[in-house]
Amino acid sequence: MKIHRPLTLPKQSFFLLGPRGTGKSTWLKESLSQAHVVDLLDETVYQRCLADPSVFQAEVGGQPPSRWIVVDEIQRLPNLLNEVHRAIESSGRRFALCGSSARKLRRTGVNLLGGRALQRFMHPFTPAELGDAFDVDQALRFGLLPVVLGSTAKAETLVSYAQLYLKEEIQGEALVRNLPGFARFLPIAALLNGQVLNVSNIARDAAVARPTVHGYLDILVDTLLCFRLPAFEAKLRVRERRHPKWYWCDPGLVRAMKRQDGPLTMEERGSLFEGLVAQLIRASMDYNSAADHVHYWAPAEAADVEVDFLLTRGARHVAVEVKSGPRPSPSWVRGLKAIQGLPGLTRRLVVYPQGPKMALGDGIEGVSLAQFSQWLREGKLF
Questions:
Q1: Tens of pLDDT along 178-190?
Q2: What is the value of pTM for the model shown?
Q3: Which residues contact 119 (CB under 8 A, 6 or more apart)?
Q4: End-to-end CA distance of the chain
Q5: Distance CA 372, CA 318 (A)
Q6: Which of 34, 142, 226, 343 is a plausible cystine mate for 154, CB 3.0–4.6 Å?
Q7: Burial level of 355, CB count in 10 A (0-12/13-18/19+)?
Q8: Could you confirm whether domain 14-121 is CATH 3.20.20.140?
Q9: In CATH, 127-235+246-266 is 3.30.2310
Q10: What is the number of alpha carbons within 13 Å of residue 278 lying toward its C-beta?
């Protein structure tokens, strides 16, 4: 089945970033079929450019000025961005710079090319992209990475993905000194999915230093597998929590890192579904500016009151609570009732896996994940 990815090809040079297996290279091949490709995953190409960056310069210079240049896995040799910079400035060449890690690029490359190259992101599939082929239970069990969905052995592919991540992204790029320690940390990070992040508690539970925990978490963010969701901090009468929440980009990866490959359990559905919605919001913001910002809301004075997501556009807010249970209950709307007085709040939603739209009282709407995904894609949320 041909799936249209919601990306528009920029007219100028750009970075295309995203986790491995999200289809970046495939999209570039389809969108820039006539481009000259420099594939740094090819060890021969990598070693040649590593030994002598002028080889890259000569290769680029041998192409027609109007021809796009695609550099795949640019984070492996960020020093090549010096040559990219020079080519953009001297001859106006256009580059598509593809990568699965922002760590080295953030330190050197993006600052070097500031203003000369746009940034675009590729995410796992969204429910709206898959349409009728989307199955929420399959998505929670195996995730929505294209490389996994296209496999006939999804569980094995997820295990291989986790192993390749350690071998190629972490060990290959020498991102940590203690690879066994990082490997032991990954299941702990997976257990944090959907939780408020307290580094001191994690350090104590994992028996490692706080700076080490900070470093490990940053690596997961920089390699685009995880992200932090900040707390909303308006000037309200209550004092909001300041610790961010932690999410993985794909529920299949959460299960793979925890080494779970069997059927879903009721205990894990809630956090996996919340993480799936978090990633959907994040992807929709990158693809079509569905919101300007997203936070979670939780007044510190009421530990049992929280709203999972607060989306903001301008001065307007939409509060979103995520529930994976089979039927409505008063707990579904407790947080949404508490946030009712927030200035600029225009809409309150409960998102559940599937089912018809429901009126949950007090102006609160209940919608399925598929409907919510469609609203985000069509810009109809606000």
A1: 778 788 888 899 9
A2: 0.92
A3: 14, 15, 17, 110
A4: 32
A5: 12
A6: 142
A7: middle
A8: no
A9: no
A10: 27
